[in-house]
Structures are given as structure tokens and as C-alpha cells.
Write a structure and sequence with these properties.
Helix content: 10-25%
Structural class: alpha+beta
Radius of gyration: 20 Å
Oligomer: single chain
Largest sheet: 5 strands, antiparallel
Strand content: 25-35%
Number of helices: 9
Number of strands: 15
Order of helices and strands: EEEHHHHEEEEHEEEHHEEEEHEH
Shape: globular
């Protein structure tokens, strides 16, 4: 995930009349067009691919660390998939925030939350960069039932978490540190990450609680196979993003939403997120991009939903 351009007081590396991308060296003519994900070092990027390339070694290092510490007795693949939504709940509202300064000078944040679905203890863990109080680049995110694995990622100094209620929309945003400028909210990553973050931040306390998401797990495959609506839009990473929506009639009608994107293998898609909701306002946010004509929509989109779907995050 990568951040959109924001004004920064950090020093700029200039090339001629513009700013040079710190990964490929391409000149970014206007500062407002640059992408950046932190302000500690002040690195500027020309596109999302350069951000990912720049941090690939760090991502692989964290994945190796996860591999060394994960237990064979941890959650099964089915359980990890069932509780996958806790990763994004952790990014939205962590119970713990740990900060560690890296050798390159930026700060890496580990966000942790504990959940108890079906009387089972599960933790969500995410390691990311922060930009003005919000996650801006995600290195790794996973769910686990092993406290020792969680402890392995508790690094640096624990930060104070402050949550403030927005009176106008009943949304609780994340504020890791009390001394941050409350008016400076980070704009979000790529278009797909921006859309998803906006949807997550717009969830209200009156909506279906996260701990009940497991009861709706059967809706995921049904929504992919027979959606009532399918929306698509291009993302900055040049991978098409899809919102599958299926409405369920109940005492109080609800919707199930699956967000997915094209995978490298054109016979598969990667699921970004999936959740139920009974909030009509939230549904309007999910209706983003172009509405596809159902029937041959899946075939036209270039993937087969009957095949096994690929997930890229643990």
C-alpha cells in the first residue's frame, strides 16, 4: 500500500525543477504529484511500484521473521481465512501501538488488537509506517492464536493510544500519539486502499460487530458466485479492483461485501477484504467505480470464481 502526496516540511531531493523519486530517480515535476509514506526521512516516490520496490527487502525480512516464529499449532489455514477481517479491524482501531526506529531513520509501527470470537483468543498484528497518525504503508499483517508470535513483534516503545469520537458521523479514528496535530489527517494510499480505508472508518458502532463476522462466513462464497451487484475500478497499481455485493433478506436486511483485485495469475483474484453490514450509507460507499452487467460479468472480468481464490497476506 502506498500513500498519496501530502505537503511536508521534510527536505526534498531536487533534480532540475522537480523532485527525484528516491527509488528510480525519475523527476516528479510537481511536488503535489509525489507519493510519500512517512516524514521522518522524507522520501518521495513517483508511483506505487517504486514504493513497493523500495521496501521489498524489509517486507521479505518481516515475512521471514513471521516464518521463524509461527507455530505449527497456530491457527489452521481455514481459521486464518475465517478471522482475516481482524487484520483490518486492527489497522482501524488497535489496542496496542509499538514504535521502533529503523536503521534507515523512519519509525516502524506494530499495531496489535485482541479478539475473542467464539470464546477463542485471536490477535490481529500489523506492521506499518505511519503518516500523520494513520497507517500509510503496510509491511505485513496476520492473525494468530499464539501469544508468543505476538510478543515477537512487540518491538521498540509502546505508544499511548488515544481515540476521539467524531460527533458528526460517530466514527472513532486512530490517534497513536497525543501530541500529534489533530487537523492533519493522512490521505490514504492507492485508490483501492483509500476506498477501503474510507469504508472502514465509516463503520458505526450500531453496525454488525466484528466479533460476529464469523457467523457470516458462508456469505463470502455466495457473494462471489452470485452477487446482486458487481462494481469495478482501475487502481494505481494497474490491477482492477472489484466490489462484489449481495443483499440478504432477513428481519433486518443486510449486505455482504467482498473486495478483491486482479492477481498476477489471470485465472485468480486476491481478496482484499470481506464483511457484512446493515448500514445503507456504508453500502453507498461500497458502490464505487463502474457497475458491471451481471451474467457474464465474471468471465468479462477475466477470472473464474469457481477456482480457488488467492490471498496474499497471512
Amino acid at each position: 500500500m502506498s500513500a498519496k502526496a501530502k505537503k511536508s516540511s521534510a527536505k526534498q531531493k531536487k533534480s532540475g525543477s522537480g523532485i527525484a523519486c528516491c527509488e528510480c530517480g525519475s523527476v516528479i515535476k510537481a511536488r503535489e504529484q509525489a507519493l510519500f509514506v512517512e516524514e521522518d526521512v522524507g522520501r518521495y516516490f513517483c508511483e506505487e511500484a517504486c514504493i513497493i520496490a523500495h521496501f521489498t527487502d524489509d517486507i521479505e525480512k518481516m515475512e521471514r521473521e513471521y516464518g521463524r516464529n509461527v507455530s505449527a499449532n497456530d491457527l489452521t489455514s481455514e481459521e486464518r481465512e475465517k478471522y482475516a477481517h481482524f487484520r483490518w479491524a486492527t489497522l482501524e482501531e488497535p489496542a496496542e501501538v509499538w514504535m521502533e526506529k529503523s536503521s534507515s531513520g523512519d519509525h516502524r509501527y506494530t499495531l496489535i488488537s485482541q479478539f475473542t470470537p467464539e470464546n477463542k483468543t485471536v490477535w490481529g498484528v500489523a506492521v506499518c509506517l505511519m503518516l500523520r497518525g494513520e497507517p500509510s504503508f503496510l509491511f505485513i499483517a496476520f492473525v494468530t492464536g499464539d501469544k508468543r508470535l505476538v510478543d515477537a513483534f512487540r518491538k521498540g516503545e509502546r505508544q499511548k493510544v488515544i481515540r476521539q469520537m467524531k460527533e458528526e458521523d460517530n466514527v472513532i479514528p486512530l490517534r497513536p500519539e497525543a501530541n500529534q496535530d489533530q487537523s492533519m489527517l493522512a490521505e490514504s494510499w492507492s485508490e483501492s486502499d483509500s476506498v477501503r480505508a474510507g469504508i472502514l472508518r465509516s463503520r458505526t458502532e450500531k453496525d454488525i460487530p466484528y466479533e460476529d463476522f464469523g457467523f457470516y462466513q458462508k456469505c463470502l462464497e455466495e457473494t462471489l458466485q452470485e452477487p446482486n451487484e458487481l462494481w469495478s475500478y482501475p487502481a494505481t497499481a494497474k490491477k482492477k479492483v472489484y466490489h462484489f455485493i449481495r443483499e440478504y433478506e432477513h428481519d433486518q436486511n443486510y449486505w455482504y461485501v467482498v473486495m478483491a483485485k486482479d492477481a498476477t495469475d489471470d485465472t485468480q483474484i486476491e481478496i482484499i477484504d470481506a464483511f457484512p453490514t446493515k448500514d445503507r450509507h456504508l453500502m453507498e460507499l461500497c458502490r464505487h467505480g463502474k457497475r458491471e452487467v451481471l451474467g457474464g460479468a465474471q468471465a468479462e472480468a477475466g477470472f473464474d470464481t469457481e477456482q480457488e481464490l488467492k490471498r496474499t497476506v497471512h
